[in-house]
Amino acid sequence: MRNDDGAATSVLVLLIGKDGYWWQRRAWDDDSHPGCLDFAAGGGIEPGETPLAAAERELAEELGVSGLPLRAVGVMRLDGERCALYQAPLPESWRLGPEVAELLAMPLQTLREQALHPQLADWLGKAGGAGA
């Protein structure tokens, strides 16, 4: 989804714990990039929704988490889409939604060697995206 005014059309959430960044493995039966690693949570911004509200909704849908202090990191063009990025501390507990196979900590170097969602691959500067 794209728009003409330069505003973000989707949100992505980075979760940070004592072990560094935490990533989502997309469900193996997902219709878009199954089994690929992705940002901890993310998705499209609904009409009339603010990016912050979308980030809160995506965390609730994908990880069953609410009330995290989200900090805006910026807006980036990733895989051709303008994405609002947020950062939050790793919650003490979570409940995976049907779109998520697992939530795991992984160093950036190891992450670069995995099959990635195209937006995450773009954020890491890795050409090719899923399976690359």
Residue windows where pLDDT falls under 50 for at least 5 positions: none
Q: Tally the helices: what do you get? A: 3
- Percent helix among the residues? 10-25%
Overall average residue pLDDT: 91
Explain the overall architecture.
This protein has 132 residues and is of the alpha+beta class. The two termini are 24 Å apart. The mean pLDDT is 91. It is globular and about 35 Å long. It is built from 3 helices and 7 strands; from the N terminus they run ββββαβββαα. The protein has helices spanning 51-63, 108-111, 118-124; strands spanning 10-17, 20-26, 37-38, 41-44, 71-78, 81-89, 100-105. Strands 1, 2, 3, 4, 5, 6 and 7 form a 7-stranded mixed beta sheet that branches.
Question: What are the main properties of this structure?
Answer:
single chain; 3 helices; alpha+beta; seven-stranded mixed sheet; 7 strands; 132 residues
Topology:
Elements: E1 10-17, E2 20-26, E3 37-38, E4 41-44, H1 51-63, E5 71-78, E6 81-89, E7 100-105, H2 108-111, H3 118-124
Parallel strand pairs: 1-6
Antiparallel strand pairs: 1-2, 1-4, 2-3, 2-7, 5-6
